[in-house]
């Protein structure tokens, strides 16, 4: 099941489960749309995979299957994958 991490790995911006601004790679690395497009050019800096809009979990399903509370933040920021 998708973790749905609560924040951007680059800027630590909050990305709640219902956010349309979250972008993820196939390893579930999570970034906000601004960092994904402006800083990372649509590529995950960790694996080089493409960053796509994270699907939203229906609100009625969040009670039984909540989003993750584990934040992943890289204080040094992110740079585009090479």
Automatic annotation (TrEMBL):
Region (Disordered): 58-82
Pfam families: DUF1272 (PF06906)
InterPro entries the UniProt entry points to: DUF1272
Protein's recorded name: DUF1272 domain-containing protein
Native source organism of the sequence: Variovorax guangxiensis
Organism lineage: Bacteria, Pseudomonadati, Pseudomonadota, Betaproteobacteria, Burkholderiales
